[in-house]
Amino acid sequence: MKDFINKFGQTSIKLSRQAKSREKLLDKMLEKGLTEKVTQDKIFRFKFPEVTKLPTPILQFQDVKFHYPATDIIPEPKILFKGLNLGVDMDSRIALVGPNGAGKSTLLKLMVKQLKPVYGDVCVHSHLRIGHFHQHLTEQLDENLTPLEWMFKEFPDTFENNSNGTEIMRSQLGQYGISGGRQTSPIKFLSDGLKSRLIFAWLAFKQPHILFLDEPSNHLDIETIDSLAEAINAFSGGLVLVSHDFRLIDQVAKEIWEVKDGAVKQYKDGIQAYKKMIAKELRNSKN
């Protein structure tokens, strides 16, 4: 009705009269509450479970050296890290930054023990539970399974040891915006954003003490990224983040670790101070 009024309200006399008549009718409908209510989409909210504190440090690098194995093509691989001595605890809020190819994701993989150093040790607390998100996890989903079936597969004890295991997992998926028929339809029909949410539902169900997030904002809209930032800030555990999203880094990181030239340099003042420092260095290099 509004479209009709806007379109024809200023044209011929006949149509103008019709427009005014409909405008009066619309006013009466508004007064009586007969028009359809305008509703806003519900904003999705991340939430990570509370966890008990572990003694510091929960993760420690001791004189770590790393390079990838030699190959026929690269007989002498580049040393990515040498002499690393680092510590991470449950109060850490760290963002890893640096040039592409410097080793940010590699450092994260060393932390979660997906890679082993060629020298030195990565010591992890014996009770530490890790939540590791990386940008290729969604590609590893079995897309022929439903979200509910996939969670059954990942957490079999939940269903074997709980008579209400299905309800527990339905609730978990629902908290991450995967509800109704989406829970029982094949994963291949989910959008990239919902696949990312499925991974976060899985990650949160593990009740991690620390989050290792590698480009977590891929496929997420701004509102969802802001919700992720709020959840991280409310989380009682630690964080190590790799991201090109400086807006997300600015919201959640207290420390910046620059990965560059085989070393890791720590800055305690956040991403804005780091950016100003880099800009100053660039200006000085041009003089």
UniProtKB/TrEMBL annotation:
The keyword ATP-binding applies. CDD domains: ABCF_EF-3. PROSITE patterns: ABC_TRANSPORTER_2. The keyword ATP-binding applies. GO terms for molecular function: ATP binding; ATP hydrolysis activity. Gene3D superfamilies: P-loop containing nucleotide triphosphate hydrolases (3.40.50.300). Keywords: ATP-binding, Nucleotide-binding, Repeat. Residues 59-286 form the ABC transporter domain. This is ABC transporter domain-containing protein.
